[in-house]
Amino acid sequence: MAKKVTANKQINGTFGALWVNGEKWMDIESFEGKISLNFEDVNMAEDLSTRKKYTGWAGEGTITVKKVFSRGAKLIAKAAKTGKMPAIKLVGKLADPDAYGSERVSFSDVTINEATLLAFEQKTLVTEEIPFNFGDYDFLDTISA
Predict the structure, then answer these.
(1) Is 40 helix (H, G, I), strand (E, B) or coil?
(2) In 8, 73, 124, 134, which residue has its Cα 20 to 30 A from 114's Cα atom?
(3) Which Pfam families does the UniProt entry name for this protein (predicted)?
(4) How open is the CA angle 23-28-130, to the nearest 5 degrees?
(5) Reduced to 3 states, what is the DSSP secondary structure of residue 90?
(6) How many beta carbons lie within 10 A of that of residue 121, not counting itself?
(7) pLDDT, tens digit, for every residue of 12-56?
(8) Are 140 and 124 in contact (CB under 8 A)?
């Protein structure tokens, strides 16, 4: 028989955390890292169906920070001018003291796709989005009941 899950076991994102090159960023608003699977069409003789062959994956994500520091600019703006890109590693953690555990994922071979140099709007709290791609990932911890 399946175990009944109570509502308080759903994880609250408030306890999520992110480390960039070993430095914990305390101004995180949100974080997402995901993979997209790539497939090629495969057609067979005398078959009207189109099937798919897996050919690899691509990793991408977005870091959204409360504008407290010049995070994106410090990380990539100088590299954009010099052509010397920094090595970037991310470790994200999703945890909640009331849940069954925590989940941690390491993202490596990270490339930052853009950096906002300056943006603001009157009477509005400023956030900054930092889109990225990654070439590898590893689950460091997973949640199980």
Answers:
(1) strand
(2) 124
(3) DUF2001 (PF09393)
(4) 90
(5) strand
(6) 7
(7) 889 999 999 999 998 999 999 999 999 999 999 999 999 999 999
(8) no
HSE toward the beta carbon, residue 1, CA cutoff 13 A: 3
**Residues with Cβ within 8 Å of residue 36, at least 6 apart in sequence:** 57, 58, 59, 60
| pLDDT value at 3 more than 80 | no
DSSP type of residue 22: T
> How do residues 63-80 score in pLDDT, each as one tens digit?
999 999 887 788 888 899
The rounded distance, in Å, linking the Cα atoms of 75 and 95 is: 26
What CATH number belongs to 14-39+51-141? 2.30.110.20
Count of other CB atoms within 10 angstroms of residue 104: 16
Query: φ, ψ for residue 4 (rounded to 5)?
Result: -75, 130
Q: Around Cβ 44, how many Cβ atoms within 10 Å? A: 9
pTM: 0.88
Q: What is the rounded distance in angstroms from the CA atom of residue 13 to the CA atom of residue 57?
A: 26
